[in-house]
Amino acid sequence: MAAASRLGRAARALPVNGPLSGIRVVEFSHMVMGPSCGLVLGDLGAEVIKVEPYPQGDNTRRL
């Protein structure tokens, strides 16, 4: 597993009071639609932990 990006750590520090606040999601998806779902869940207040293949990460990064 690769380390989280700086943006991920900074975003995690911000308090979020959405309808999914207090919910933790572990995301194993890749290629556009799955990660987009994780983004929406995070916007709604869930804590999203994204797991990506090592060492290349999510293929969407190379589109």
The count of DSSP E runs of length 2 or more, i.e. the number of strands, is 2
What sequence of helices (H) and strands (E) makes up the elements? HEHE
Mean pLDDT: 80
Strand order of the largest sheet: 1-2
- Sum up the overall morphology in one term: elongated
* Count of alpha and pi helical runs: 2
Class per helix and strand makeup: alpha+beta
Largest sheet entry: 2 strands, parallel
Distance between the termini: 21 Å
Number of domains: 1
Tell me the radius of gyration. 12 Å
The percent range for helix content is 25-40%
Could you tell me the strand content as a percent range? 5-15%
Uncertain segments: none
Overview of the molecule:
With 63 residues, the protein is of the alpha+beta class. The chain has one domain (6-62). Helix content is 30%, strand content 13%. The chain has helices at 6-13, 33-43; strands at 24-27, 47-50. The protein is elongated, with a radius of gyration of 12 Å. The mean pLDDT is 80.
Short description:
This protein is α+β, with helices and mostly antiparallel strands. The protein has helices at residues 6-13, 33-43; strands spanning 24-27, 47-50. It has one domain (6-62).
